[in-house]
Structures are given as structure tokens and as C-alpha cells.
Task: structure prediction
Amino acid sequence: MSLKHQIIIIGGGNAGISVASRLLLQNNLLDIAIVEPSDKHYYQPAWTLAGSGVFDISKTMRNEADVMPENAKWIKGKVSGFDPEHNAITLEDGTRLHYDFLVVAAGIQLNWDEIKGLNETLGKNNVCSNYSYDYAPYTFECIQNFKGGKAIFHNPHTPVKCGGAPHKIMYMAADYFRKKGVLDKANIQYWSGGTRLFAVPKYEKTLLKVCERAHINLHFMVKLVEVDGPNKKARFVGIGEQNKDQSYEVAFDMLHVTPPQSAPDFIRNSPLANSTGWVDVDKYSLQHVRYANIFSLGDAAGLPTSKTGAAIRKQAPVLVENLIAVMNGQPATAQYNGYTSCPLLTGYGKLVLAEFDYENKPQETFPFDQSKERWSMYILKRHILPWLYWAKILPGKA
Result:
């Protein structure tokens, strides 16, 4: 079976749905198909709040059918391969789809299997992760049940969606321990594959103070390779020149894991990928560097910025403007400056709203110093952004 559509969008998450909605708002006669295998759509930025006990995780899930733009055709399937020379993609069931223009918005792949023993112990033995709808509520169970000892928070050696998530749950846990009178019995440790806590000095300065007040020990340039849940041990290895031969066995009473992440296999093993596996697009125009009728945005795109929903909100209008221009035989002149945002929860009722661009220069929305912890920004994260996502961003109106 061979099918043809004017525009095919791969991915029915934030990026794919919001691009489709924006395109159809400009021209509802466009022939758009969205390839997406999942029945459910998730608002993942609230999973840290769910893991902190302040958000009902069921409210982060809706039926995919309910967020699909009504004038787009939903093709329920998984992509297995690309044939950009013939403007075609292949689905796992063998269906071959042809397009005039392609938008790749397939998100990011969570590689739980890369950590030995993790799948067997996740969701028990005080091993938790906010990177799963099924297991995020268990994070709060672990925080509630913690009576002292070692609380380990892990950040992998790979890019991840929402780069702040691996450590903002640590700040929430520390604040909870403080409120319950067990912080002085806690040895909180952060084990990260990165070189520093946060890339933007203005915000990192505040986060280091948050770590200092909770006596958090920071460890960098390490990779988590194994978790032994029953015996409550984690093994890390060094990945920097200074410590590449080092191996560390760390006992824990609670362990929050962020899985290593990559572009989906069908992208990283395709002609669309760059040397690190992400879709090889120009970082300003979001147009593929070799195939002019292919664009990409969101987590799957090879863009040197944090992979966040806020980044997608700024990428989508640029991509739509450039795609329409190319469809009309014009050059792609709209530019994305790398804007991204990390709403960094630093405690219950406290948040640092980090906003910055490709140069790691702050690009702040509000007329005050956003590097300070603020209750108002916590309210934005907790109440306003979830509403904005469902009501405005997915329909292409924000």
C-alpha cells in the first residue's frame, strides 16, 4: 500500500501537534498527516510536580484523539525508515508513505536498558524516576518514606529532555526532608555525567546556594552503569580524562534515576541523522541541511539547546513560517535563536525561571531578576503553564 500526503508530520507530541495546528490555522485546506503510534498524550513537565506530591499525574494524560487537530489525518503507526531521495517513509507494518514536505517531531528515546539492573528494580527498592508516567508517583512515596541516610539523584551523560528535571526533584526532596525534620539525617548526593550543575552562570549561582543550604554533595563526569536494587547499591564509572579509570560503588537509601537518552533508533540510523544521531537541521531555520523539504523541531532535532517544551513553543512558529515559505518557492528566512526555558523548582513554593538562548545568555520574560527564587514563578509552573499547554499551545495559539 502506498499513500501520499502534502505534509507528513512524524510525532503526535507537543512539537508535532502544535506545528500541525499552526499550519492549519493558516490554511485549513492543507493535506496534513500525523504519524503517531500512541493512544495517549502526556504533559510531561508536570511529572516533577507529581513526583513531589503536588500534582495529580492522571491530569497530565489525555487521549491522543482529543488533541489531534480535526483537519489532520492521524496515521496510527510507527516509522521504521526514511527514503528522502524518493520523499518517502516506511512504517513498521510495511506501509510506504510519500510526502511533498516532512516534519520530524518524533521526540526522544529513553534508554532504560543501558543501566544494568534498572528495569528489574525501578518502582521498588526505593529506586524511582520522574521520567515515567507509571513511576513518577513512586518518587513521592520514596521521599515520604525517607527517614535518613543516602539520597542519590542521578543525571546521565547524555542530553535529556528538560535538563533541569534530574536535579529539581532533588531540591524538592531536600525541602520536604527539611519540613519533616529529617534533613539533618540526610546525605544528599548528585551524581552527574555533566561538567557542572547548570550551564548559565546567572542561574547556576542560585542553584549552588540551594545545594549549599541542603548540604548536597556534587559529583560530576560520572556515568551510572548498574543498579542493584535489593542490596541498595549503584555503580558509577568516571568519564572524564581525570577519572576515566575510576569506578565508584555507592550505597543508597533512595535513588532517583534519569535514564540515558538519545534520538529514536529509526532516526539515528537514518540518512537524516547527524554524527550524534539527531536530525541534522540548520539551527536557525530548522530546515534539514541536505534535504530542503524536510524540517525538524523539538527533542529529535539536532539543536544545541536544552530540550524543553518552552523551546518547542519558540521553534514551532519559525518552522511553520519557513515551511510555508519553502512550499511557496521562497527561502527560509525566519530564525530561531536557541531560546529555551527551565522552570527550576527549588522547593515547595519556590522556583527559578531560567530562560536563555544558544549563547547561554539570559532571555528573560519578566521585568525582574529571574535568578531569584520566587513564589510567583512557582504558581506559573504549577497552575498557569499546564492550562496554557492544553488550551493554547497544542491548538497553535500560543
Q: What stands out?
A: The radius of gyration is 21 Å. The chain has a mean pLDDT of 97. The chain has two domains: 2-108+263-337, 113-261. Residues 222 and 239 are 5 Å apart (CA to CA).
